Amino acid sequence: MKLALTGLMISTLLMATVAHAQISASDVPATLTITGIARGSSEATCALAANASAIYLRGDVSNLIELGDDADNMTFVPLHIEGNKECDALIEQGKLSYRFLGTADDSQGSALANASTGENAATGVAIGLFDNKGKPVSINSTAYTVSKDAQQGIGFQVVKLKDQTATAGTVHGVLTIDVERL
What we know:
There is one protein chain. The protein is of the alpha+beta class. It has a single domain (about 45-180), classed as Fimbrial-type adhesion domain (Immunoglobulin-like, Sandwich), CATH 2.60.40. Helix content is about 15%, strand content about 25%. It contains 2 helices and 10 strands; from the N terminus they run αβββαβββββββ. The chain has helices at about 1-25, 85-90; strands spanning about 45-50, 65, 75-85, 95-100, 110-115, 125-130, 135, 145, 155-160, 175-180. The strands form 2 sheets. Strands 1, 2, 3, 5, 6, 7 and 9 form a 7-stranded mixed beta sheet that branches. β6 (about 125-130) and β7 (about 135) form a beta hairpin. The protein is elongated and about 55 Å long. It starts with a helix and ends with a strand. Mean pLDDT is about 85; it is low at about 1-25. It is found in: Fimbrium. Pfam families: Fimbrial. Keywords: Fimbrium, Signal. InterPro entries: Adhesion_dom_fimbrial (IPR000259), Adhesion_dom_fimbrial_sf (IPR036937), Adhesion_dom_sf (IPR008966), Bact_Fimbrial_Adh_Pro (IPR050263).
């Protein structure tokens, strides 16, 4: 009798384990993408470092500066290049530059267009780009030489497009900062 009861308990436990394994087991595959480059030891390896990957801008549509004006309330993001000694040599020789790329505004083509759409999107505005002194920087055109200057970077401010009426709403843009070897 004890043997039969023990056999029944073991069978019940095994069934519970199998049932539990079948209920809670869910294989979820994962994909890992690996990229890289093989390089010679004397090649420059440079990487852009920015102090922010996303920023939040605010602007009162009744007090916006016009596209082309100097910034008066920009959000500034410092940029610097990190790398090996060959990269440092390129910077010292003035052979690296930044270029700011994105969808240009439809007014003058020098600011980052507002990509927000729909009924909540701001109209008549763009995202102005500025140097560390608040002077306008044109998108998709000028290359700016990389330096070791701690004040190097890019500023952002919502700007009013010329000959358009600015309306309140959401503003969104995506900027690519390209590092070019000259």
